[in-house]
Amino acid sequence: MKTDHLYSKVRQGIFGVFALFAIVLSAHVNAGVTEFWSKSNEANTASIDHSQWQIVLDRYLVANDPSDVNLFNYKGVRKSDRAVLDNYLGAMQKLDPRSYNKAEQQAYWINLYNALTVQLILDNYPVKSITKLGESLFAFGPWDDDAAVVQGKTLSLNHIEHKILRPIWKDPRIHYAVNCASYSCPNLSAKAFTAKNTEQLLNDGAIAYVNHPRGVTVKGEDLLISSIYDWYLVDFGDNQKSLLKHLKQYAKPDLKKQLDAFNSKRGDIDHNYDWSLNELK
Hints:
Elements: H1 2-37, H2 51-60, E1 61-62, E2 71-72, H3 79-94, H4 102-124, E3 146-150, E4 153-156, H5 157-169, H6 198-210, E5 216-219, E6 222-226, H7 228-231, H8 240-250, H9 253-261, E7 269-272
Parallel strand pairs: 6-7
Antiparallel strand pairs: 1-2, 3-4, 5-6
Helix pairs in contact: 1-5, 2-3, 3-4, 4-5, 8-9
């Protein structure tokens, strides 16, 4: 168990390096890419149809597991429903999201990211962890691999998250919406995002994660929190005080009391992340 724990810590550290590199790199090279995708047509009131993605979620996502972690039944996906997923992703890649308003765009990119991740796992199933995937020799996961082509632009999952969603919307709750197919990741939403429900789903995701042990756990005078709050601290205010303010905003009364009582001079903040597949077994 000690060896497994050490290996897990090393893997988290490696991912942290990659996450930090992505953040630093984005500050230098994302401007042009982000500018391309930041255009919108606010006068367009048309809706993007995510019903096929909802069909897949309804049939294979288990949102009432006793663990309070939404689990996906990868093993049970039928060929006919795999076709539904593939058709959905094909349709999404034929759209020009820039022709829609910003609310439609946000839902579009979140759903696209999550559906591509599920497709990726299905393409490689069975697999114990998404970190086992990745096309390059030293890859820690598949996030830099080509995943979709939209308007002639080849996009990876990292493109969608770090060059589109994070810089355009600048909302830390994005981290509660995009799912990395891992146990410690915020839940894959049981509802497809839409322009009408995105705000509610972002709030629901934040509340669910912050109040779950894999998000925040108080252990005596110490805090054990998700590594997401370490890798992307910049999105949560870039300092401990701002992070704690964010956590308190979504914490339920008992947890909020514990966070209010936390004294960083006496206690430590540690980080943890479980990369095992969010699979229904």
